[in-house]
Amino acid sequence: MNVFQKVTLESLKKNRTRTIVTIIGILLSTAMMTAITTMVASVLQFAYDVTEYDAGGWHLADTSLTQAEAEELIRTGEGLARGVYAKRLGFAHLRKDVNTPFLYVLDANKEFAELSGMHLLEGRYPENENEIVIPKQLENYWQDLDWKVGDRITLTIGERRGPDGTILWQDTDRQITDSGTFAETLENTHSVEFTIVGICQRQPLEMWNGAASFFAVLTTESSLPAASQVDSYYRFKHPHDYIFIDEEGTWHQTFIENTANAKSCVPNYDLLRLSGFASIGLLNAIKGLAALILIIVGGASIALVYNAFAISVSERTKQFGLLSSLGATKKQLQKMVRFEALAVSAVGIPLGILAGLFGIGITLHFIGQKFAAALEVEGTGAVLHLVISPAAILAASVCALITVLLSAWIPSRKATQVSAVEAIRQSQDIKLSREDVKSSHLTMKLFGLSGVLGQKYYHRSRRKYRSTILSLFMSVLLFVTVCTFTDYIGYVGDLQFDADAYDIDFCQYQSAQSVIPGDELEARIRALSEVDAVKRIYNVGIPMLFSDGEEGYFKVYYLNEEDWQELLEENHLEVEPFNDPNHLLAVAAESPLYYDGRQNKYIEGSRFEGRELWMETPIAMYDEAGQLCTEETQLKIGAVLPTLPWYAERDVSGVSFFYPDWAAQMMGQEDTLDLAAYHIKAENHSKAFVQLSELSEALGAKSYSVYDHSQERDNNRNLILIAQIFSYGFIVLITLIAVANVFNTVSTNIGLRHREFAMLKAVGMGKKMFFQMLTYECFLCTGKALLYGLPVSLLTSVLIGKIIGARYVISLRIPWIAIEISVIGIFAIMAFTMAYAVQKLKKQNLIDMLRNENT
Hints:
It contains 23 helices and 26 strands. With 855 residues, the protein is of the alpha+beta class. Helix 19 runs parallel beside helix 22 and helix 21 packs antiparallel against helix 22. About 2% of the residues have low confidence.
């Protein structure tokens, strides 16, 4: 360690407060950068985990190799992390209907199922040739097929052969004649009885090259004759060594070089894209947003760290002058400043990395499950958790170090350009004219001599206060801007996503009413212990036309007599006018947000204001001559409700109409009601959903559907909550950086003025006048920051509203609470900093302060 480095370390020890504040600033900026890069790494890993579950964990699949070739490749292949294969036993076709898929029977083990993406949902994997695992999605194709674990089934397995006798495999779609009849046969068949021991997720690559004619089912150790070729899957330690994309975007592989058919090798496109093989729009947007935030954080950090080094260099200017007079070169002096930057970075950056990892780890611990639930990927087992990525930590460290070095380089360049004589005399900053420190008579009258002195020092030291004003300005701007953004997210989210007031939707198709009448079904639903309220309604969509030409497709609800009377009574409407079949009146209600197709925007407000509404005659209606009716009839609205009833959907059309059920025939809608909807309220919607699902299964699941709207609302709210958590976290960290900057600047400036304060006290300035002078300086500095910060913040809020307005036409939201908090906050910051600095001055001796020359 040379003498210059020793002098630098002594200077850091001597000015401990400034050194600690500088380290805190570096710590905060590094922590935020680490949080950002680590969050991106965690999101990428989360996306990879979800994709690996959905698409399988393999990188390359092949159907051209024989069993011996696949075994040799798995045994000797360099760079291979894992390899599996399945023997092809053939196909089973339960029906000769052209719309019925085949069952593709494979002989494989548990390792093959896991790597290929056939995740076990129920039961276990087969252990012998008489056991089989089937995919859950089978029930979507064979609706009357009720296979479950423990059932014994018989499959006739054979070779698919086309009309010309060629053998067909899974890469060939069903062969159908021009007349639409089935053109395939199964030959060399064997009948085998299996016991179903497991239900699995459908294999991602069942549909090779677009074929949709089969489902893969697994058995193991079968004695049936198998095809010479096998289905093989490979996962590499470093996939970039074997798979690449050329300039034209074509995928290539070099692992299986002896294959005769290149098309038989299929890369796992989705998984490989997330491994960096190709550009993905959403992930690029995430990385771009992270880069933008890093730039903002870097800018705020430079303001803090630069100010700290500028003060340090300013204090040490006389020291630099003395060293320069003793022969130190500019290069050596600049190295001193760089060494100082590296010294504080050596402490601040590691602590910042630890703080960032701890903070983002705690955050992801609480929101990880919510994030997975909001994206509806809970079944994959993927959770957004902390991923400690060396690349992310390195990126944050490099950004933080560049920030510190850049912040130190600028003041060091300025300091070393001053001559040795000027540096020793410290006269380079004293270049003021009489006009620069001239004070107004109004200041004298309003604030007295203390105000005049404070104003003179403020004008004389504008450069010293400039960074403080900039920090306060940025603090106000960022705080108000992020609060505005967060407020808009919450407000628009409530309008857009808080869709329906009811919790669960239970639908009964009309064909099912022959099994159980609607009244009986409603009674059974109402009898469930977790159901609080039930409404049975029929709803259809009817094309509407406003008087100004706007078209719409609005919801119409037909209520039974009891619910219709209840609707009228609850809203204090006269019963007779709404029950007159000769003058049919609708009860209308509006959602707070509707979609306007002409503007391609969501609009907050009413669609009825100043316009009449017409209903286009339904297409199903014909006149007595059998001609299609095309006349438009005016829809008469008897009342508009202030809010939607709880059982109505908040449709994007924005308008819902309510009629008694007997009005459906009058409006030509009696034949268009294809389902009855039971809208249900339940305090514990999860348990109610389970009970309703069990009821649906008992009645015949193919005739009913159950949907949990409350769960969807919770998922959407989770997304909003996650966005708000990160927004407020950003606010807190930026505010802390600004506070550290202001504290460092103001406390150091006051510390440098102790000789001046001692002289003022020596000539008779009392404590009250001294306090008034500093208070006036505080108000000058804070007032100027607010003078710039508030208008710019309001302008930014308006711009955010304009950006939101590109999709949502909603009222402008001014963040008055955020503005009040920012005003009170920066005054509190300045007051606390002033009080801290003055308290330190009280501990110093007046004589010592006069003797000290700030060297």
